[in-house]
Amino acid sequence: MPGCFKKTLFALASAMSFVSFILIVVAMGTQKWITGKILCKTGADLVNATDPELVKFTGDIYYGLFRGGKVRQCGLGGRRSKFTLFPHLVKKLNTGLHVMIIIFLCVAISFALISFGFCILNIIQVPYRAIKGPAGICLWNLLAGGFTALAVASFIAAVKLHHLTERIANFQEIFQFLVLEEQYEGSFWLCVASATAHGVNLLLIALSAIRFPEFKTKTEEANVTAEDIMY
Are 190 and 64 in contact (CB under 8 A)? Predict the structure, then answer.
């Protein structure tokens, strides 16, 4: 029973590691990390637009790690455009920080796959002490979850401290745009879910280290008599 319990926990941990890997890949591939509302300040100032009229000067923006799009509203209707962050737009941003986010996520993908492999090895009981046991799985989950958390924290810093949305909105624009609101979207929360999955894995591995008492059936002592010896 204890062996089956541990194998079940390792199977769940391997599934969580694989799910974490998928979540990061999907998050990097989709481009809805941030959505927001942008105001064409220059156009609104030119016509002295009041609050009811500001709707005509309010557009939308969305972007991810590699590309995005926006709708410019400067009083003459919306104009849609798409952009890519590499190779030109990234030069206007905090290049080092943005590249670090991508590197952190790539490293997290590698460690998530390694954690998945270690879980499989523990399920089939590969007889190598350097591999067998929960310590290796905990290590790789800590690294994978840590790098994912670093990527999430770096992205938040880029948005809040380095005004990432405002820089993107004003890239190659004659008019000035202000960010009215911005919110994190599905791709961002996928990375948060990936880091959470590794935290759940640590809990599962901790449970696998619990030793359950083994119940053994008591064998009846044989009563040897003189008659048994004679016969």
Answer: no
Structure tokens at 170: 């004003």
SS3 87: coil
Residue 12 φ/ψ, nearest 5 degrees: -65, -40
Pull the structure tokens for residue 162.
């380095």
CATH of domain 2-211: 1.20.140.150
Is residue 44 within 8 Å of 198, Cβ to Cβ?
no
| pLDDT at site 97 | 93
pLDDT for 94: 87
DSSP per position, 108-149: HHHHHHHHHHHHHHHHTT-S-TTTSSHHHHHHHHHHHHHHHH
> Which three-class secondary structure state does DSSP give residue 59?
strand
Sign of dihedral through CA atoms 18, 24, 28, 33? positive
3-state class (DSSP) for residue 77: coil
Cβ burial of 190 (10 Å; 0-12, 13-18, 19+) is buried
What mean pLDDT value characterizes the chain?
86
* pLDDT tops 90 at residue 166: yes
